[in-house]
Design brief:
Elements (H helix, E strand, L loop, with lengths): L25 H18 L8 H10 L14 H5 L7 H6 L12 H14 L5 H6 L2 H8 L4 H9 L2 H11 L22 E2 L13 E4 L2 H6 L2 H13 L3 E4 L8 H6 L2 H20 L3 E3 L3 H14 L4 H8 L1 E2 L1 H9 L13 E6 L2 H4 L6 H6 L5 E6 L16 H18 L3 E4 L2 H12 L14 H9 L2
Helix pairs in contact: 1-5, 11-21, 13-15, 14-15, 19-20
């Protein structure tokens, strides 16, 4: 029977058999890497997404055979090191993802290779440190320490020292830390009058603020609360929740991902039982509970229950807009908006809901940019990959400049920060550029609340 060249069917991501007998077997892993690399070599449509594919294709083109069989298997992990699990290749480009018979899932194969490396202690101490967000962020977000950390991040001399000692690039933009986390200064309950359910939404939202929203950009969470309350949605802040696990997933520390899942599940389930939906302002954190953890634990009914109740903010607002439960009387137009669509939001397959909602605002024109910013969680701050991240970001920065926007931003605050960094020039020569704005903050501005 003839093999199909490609597939027009919807992507069907398969469970990750990370606890199976062969998952960490070297021979089995390398055989699968060779099989998939050979398919990717014959296709090459993902070459512009990130540096993983150019790295692979250069290895092939520089080999004696011009085929994957000519590539030294010791170089296979060079490709893995360039993958930051954005998922774009699988969800937006690859014609060979299941249900195609070749069953290529490049990101999850890279995840398997990262897990193999982690199990065999082939990871840097720096990477283990900067992916430990809960203890690190908690330590920094204390009075006195946060100010010192922010001052150090702004000091060229200390940044150069940090690059030599810790491998954090001296020019990479770093997040600002607040001295008091949001969960320690905001009240837990934020009622909003009569609760109305519709279209899978209960009208009550429990916000999983995430490490980033708690310690780095709490204003985004405050803006989200204001927008939800303005639209009649009751809100409560989830207390004592742990990291979503995405940083550890990207490191390949799958057992730690499982521990973080176990810490959060009782908190989420209790909120659901109390009638709340779950929402997070960071697309990566939403993706963990809507895709990655359900694929890691396909038989876990609790994980599947949480998945059904987890929402992206604009996915939620547009569901309620369909039921005429969203206020569309905006007081202030936004003008020209350059909106970067975060990779981890794109691959959730619910459409361009942020763009659609922003387009409801009168006298507002949205330019949506569907291309990776190159930030990843840690890729853009590492000394060895910062320049590659900026190269990936360059087309996005160019598109923002061409739009000549009144405001710009991304659903992912880290992507927004890297875009702003690119607009300012890597040496800061154009530092009068405005900072990126999260779309939910744009909406609050438009409401005038």
């Amino acid at each position: 029977m003839a093999t199909r060249e490609g597939s027009l069917e919807a992507p069907d991501r398969q469970p990750i058999d990370w606890q199976g007998d062969t998952f960490y077997d070297k021979d089995d892993l390398y055989a699968e890497l060779e099989r998939v690399y050979d398919i990717c070599h014959g296709c090459r449509r993902c070459v512009s997404l990130c540096d993983a594919f150019p790295t692979l294709f250069d290895l092939v083109d520089e080999s004696d055979t011009f085929e994957v069989d000519g590539v030294d298997k010791n170089d296979y992990m060079k490709v893995v090191d360039q993958c930051f699990l954005c998922d774009l290749c699988a969800e937006t480009k690859c014609p060979y993802l299941p249900p195609h018979e070749w069953a290529v899932d490049f990101p999850h194969l890279m995840l398997r290779a990262k897990a193999y490396k982690f199990k065999h202690k082939d990871t840097k101490w720096r990477d283990r440190l900067i992916t430990s967000t809960d203890p690190i962020f908690d330590a920094i977000s204390t009075p006195g320490v946060a100010g010192l950390a922010n001052a150090a991040a702004a000091s060229p001399g200390l940044r150069k020292m940090g690059e030599k000692l810790a491998g954090i690039h001296a020019r990479a933009p770093l997040p600002n830390f607040v001295s008091r986390p949001l969960t320690k200064r905001l009240s837990e309950e934020h009622p909003a009058g009569e609760v109305k359910s519709c279209n899978r939404t209960t009208g009550k939202v429990a916000i999983y603020v995430t490490c980033y929203g708690d310690h780095n950009e709490p204003q985004v969470v405050e803006d989200l609360i204001a927008v939800l309350k303005h639209n009649g949605v009751a809100v409560k802040i989830l207390q004592d929740a742990a990291c979503c696990g995405m940083p550890k997933l990207e490191l390949g520390d799958l057992h730690k991902v499982g521990q973080l899942k176990d810490a959060n599940m009782p908190i989420f389930v209790q909120a659901i039982e109390d009638g709340y939906d779950i929402m997070a302002p960071i697309p990566s954190c939403v993706l963990m509970y809507k895709q990655e953890l359900p694929l890691m634990y396909p038989e876990d009914a609790t994980v599947q229950q949480v998945r059904q109740h987890f929402f992206d903010p604009f996915e939620y607002l547009m569901l309620r807009h369909k039921a005429d439960l969203v206020d569309t009387h905006f007081k202030q137009p936004l003008g020209q908006v350059a909106y970067h669509v975060a990779c981890h939001q794109r691959v959730q397959s619910f459409g361009m809901k942020t763009r659609d909602f922003l387009s409801l605002i009168p006298d507002t024109e949205v330019t949506a940019i569907e291309r990776c910013s190159g930030h990843d969680g840690t890729y853009a701050v590492k000394a060895e990959t910062y320049d590659k991240a900026m190269k990936i970001a360059r087309p996005v920065v160019r598109r923002v400049k061409e739009a000549n926007p009144d405001t710009f931003g991304s659903d992912c605050p880290m992507a927004g920060r890297l875009i702003a960094h690119g607009l300012a020039g890597e040496d800061g020569t154009d530092d009068d550029q405005a900072a990126a704005s999260h779309p939910i903050s744009m909406v609050r501005t438009a409401y005038g609340i």
